[in-house]
């Protein structure tokens, strides 16, 4: 498709309705295209990977979790107590193999746990940094059984580089990646598309309620229109022309009601966390004190949103694929894993409740992982 057609597709009706918005759409398209053509630099600064993990089969951990669960008065606890929230699929070893095979350029790998350590883990591996919660999370926030306090405090990890990529333990590299897949001229690559969130009747106890809190913080902290005017090339880049209608609506409304936020890798700048903690300390502190998820919490998405509306990002397409792991989806997931169609693959626990179903799915998944990554990595003994 020609550049002129791209412009016409996103610009249709803009002059008629909002002259300034139409101007920004065209400016954004041209500016982002020029940046892509003219960029010849290399991302030659240290980039770390951070991955969090828990072994839910550990009887000591389960006993401790149950103890604090009985003490909590949080009515939302049942939503956070699903087996799928913590279940260990024994795939973390393949996460490390994928990193070594597809991202050998990574500076360091920070493996974050509550102190649990897989028996095969090689602590002498040159790039590995084994980090416990006590190593970086303030003691008043511990212990925690919610991922959110852990994620919101990642910036405190000792010696963590300014540029880092965060993985949940269900997010895997699926083919070779480069530093430029995550950063551009020192800025995190992110897909800034303001897609409205679908609200349902069970939002009161649904984890998605916390995302609404994230949006509320942004609406109270930023002048949305000014942010877009300041960087039209980031909000109307040529590569998202088919989705530009969402950002046009965002500019017209002047407030945020949703954001496209795929569950894949996230590139971050450490100073974004520091700035957010300084500006929203009370809220970040309150969330970090939650032993379990609560509807009053904010999430790691807020850090990304803060980065977007501060202008500290470079627009990019999503490089990942997400799927819930169930007996119906397992064959498709195996095909995606073995075909390497996507650079990043998220295999999210679909929470199968029957033991037979779980064992069936796990067996097929591990067979596929072992077929793709049969060789040990330097992270293993």
How would you characterize the overall build of this protein?
With 381 residues, the chain is α/β, with parallel strands linked by helices. The chain folds into 2 domains: 3-40 and 192-253, no CATH class; 47-186 and 262-372, Spore Coat Polysaccharide Biosynthesis Protein SpsA, Chain A (Alpha-Beta Complex). The chain is built from 16 helices and 11 strands. It has helices spanning 3-11, 14-17, 19-38, 59-71, 77-80, 92-102, 147-152, 209-221, 224-230, 232-235, 244-253, 270-279, 281-288, 301-309, 330-339, 355-372; strands at 47-52, 109-113, 128-132, 163-167, 171-173, 183-184, 187-190, 266-269, 314-315, 320-325, 344-349. It has a 5-stranded mixed β-sheet with strand order 3-2-1-4-8. A 3-stranded mixed β-sheet has the order 5-11-10. Helix 1 (3-11) runs antiparallel to helix 3 (19-38) and helix 12 (270-279) crosses helix 13 (281-288). The longest helix is centred in the first third of the chain and has 20 residues, at 19-38.
Work out the helix count.
16
Please name the CATH architecture of the largest domain.
Alpha-Beta Complex
Give the class from helix and strand content and strand pairing: alpha/beta
Percentage of residues assigned to helices: 40-55%
Classify the beta-strand content into a percent band: 5-15%
| CATH class category of the largest domain | Alpha Beta
What's the pLDDT, averaged over the residues? Answer: 86
Order of helices and strands: HHHEHHHEEHEEEEHHHHEHHHEEHEH
Shape: globular
> What Rg, in angstroms, do the CA atoms define?
21 Å
CATH topology value of the largest domain:
Spore Coat Polysaccharide Biosynthesis Protein SpsA, Chain A
Number of strands: 11
- End-to-end separation: 51 Å
What's the arrangement of strands in the largest beta sheet? 3-2-1-4-8
By oligomeric state, this entry counts as: single chain
């Amino acid at each position: 498709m020609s550049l002129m057609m791209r412009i016409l597709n996103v610009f249709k009706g803009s002059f008629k309705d909002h002259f300034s918005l139409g101007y920004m759409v065209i400016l954004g398209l041209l500016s982002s295209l020029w940046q892509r053509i003219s960029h010849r630099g290399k991302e030659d600064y240290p980039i770390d990977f951070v991955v969090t993990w828990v072994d839910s089969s550990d009887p000591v951990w389960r006993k401790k979790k149950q103890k604090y669960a009985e003490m909590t008065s949080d009515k939302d606890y049942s939503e956070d107590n699903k087996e799928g929230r913590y279940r260990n699929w024994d795939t973390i070893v393949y996460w490390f193999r994928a990193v070594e095979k597809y991202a050998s350029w990574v500076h360091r790998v920070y493996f974050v746990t509550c102190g649990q350590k897989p028996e095969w883990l090689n602590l002498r591996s040159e790039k590995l940094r084994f980090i416990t919660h006590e190593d970086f999370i303030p003691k008043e926030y511990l212990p925690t059984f919610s991922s959110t306090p852990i994620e919101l405090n990642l910036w405190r990890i000792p010696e963590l580089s300014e540029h880092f990529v965060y993985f949940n333990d269900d997010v895997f590299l699926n083919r070779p990646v480069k530093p430029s897949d995550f950063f551009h001229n020192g800025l995190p690559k992110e897909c800034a598309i303001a897609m409205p969130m679908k609200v349902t009747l069970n939002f009161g106890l649904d984890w998605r309620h916390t995302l609404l809190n994230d949006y509320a913080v942004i609406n109270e902290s930023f002048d949305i229109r000014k942010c877009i005017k300041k960087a039209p090339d980031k909000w109307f880049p040529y590569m998202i022309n088919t989705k530009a209608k969402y950002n046009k609506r965002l500019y017209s409304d002047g407030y945020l009601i949703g954001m496209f936020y795929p569950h894949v890798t996230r590139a971050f700048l450490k100073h974004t966390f520091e700035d957010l903690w300084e500006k929203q300390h009370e809220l970040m502190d309150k969330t970090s004190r939650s032993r379990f998820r609560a509807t009053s919490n904010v999430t790691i998405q807020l850090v990304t949103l803060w980065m977007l509306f501060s202008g500290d990002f470079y627009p990019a397409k999503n490089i990942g694929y997400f799927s819930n792991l169930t007996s119906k989806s397992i064959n498709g997931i195996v095909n995606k894993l073995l075909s390497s169609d996507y650079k990043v693959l998220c295999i999210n626990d679909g929470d199968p409740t029957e033991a037979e179903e779980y064992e069936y799915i796990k067996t097929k998944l591990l067979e596929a992982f072992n077929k793709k990554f049969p060789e040990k990595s330097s992270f293993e003994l």
